[in-house]
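User: Predict the structure for this protein chain, please.
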Amino acid sequence: MATFHTPMVTLSDGNLIPQIGLGVLRIDDEGVTSVVEGALEVGYRHIDGAAGYNNEAGVGRALRNAGFTQGEHRKNLWVTTKLRDSEQGYDSARKAFDRQLSLLQLDYVDMYMLHWPTPFDWRSGETWKAFQEFRAENRVRTLGVCNFMPEHLDRLYEETGEYPAVNQIELHPTWQQREVVEYCKAHGIAVEAYSPMARGADLNAGNGTIERIAAAHGVTPAQVILRWHIENGTIIIPKSTHAERQKQNLDLFGFALAPEEHAAIDALDGPTRAGHDPMTFTYA
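Assistant: Here is the predicted structure, written as structure tokens:
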């Protein structure tokens, strides 16, 4: 079995997060168990889940079966989960988090996140107070958010006096969200990309640009895009249910993009997101 070295990103709170993780969105609760077990076997040490994915119990079974719920294995694993939007609020978040830890069969999670800002039903400030208590109780190491735009991050800071350590956003070559990324960098917030390949759509971006770069390096188009993210310092959570692709998604360090290749991918930025609008969307 190949051994892959995954770089660590140092967060503003001092914690170290593996730069590559496994996303488990749209994998059913039964199927996710074998997918996570396989990922741990090939070397993943970062699993990104959420209550809204309805598969936390399956992830928990995988962690237990593979021996990652306690001891040294647990110390070397990063587990993220997220609060359901419908359970935002101080009291409801306290209840939800207890349930989630039980499903995951863990004593703590490495990162707990607000899933969407829901500005039309804003409860992030009061919810964050519960999050801060979880951290003080040593049941969460790092606090993060997903899909927060600068105005939401400003509001959260105004209400709580704190910025999240991580902002997980849709980010890929054709939707680079440069203003959000620059804001996060200026405020010490690490950027984490979901849909890092636009659910596969960006593999063919730029009239073959990605494919040509891949051919020049003898790698896959997916590896080219993920390498571009790595070189940008972005944390990535590509999803794959296939062992061989999981391995490829970790195997990003045997090549580097030439400056002109990196710039060619930068130039693919466009005006259309693949996912949902944080100003109007709520998940679960």
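The mean pLDDT is 97.
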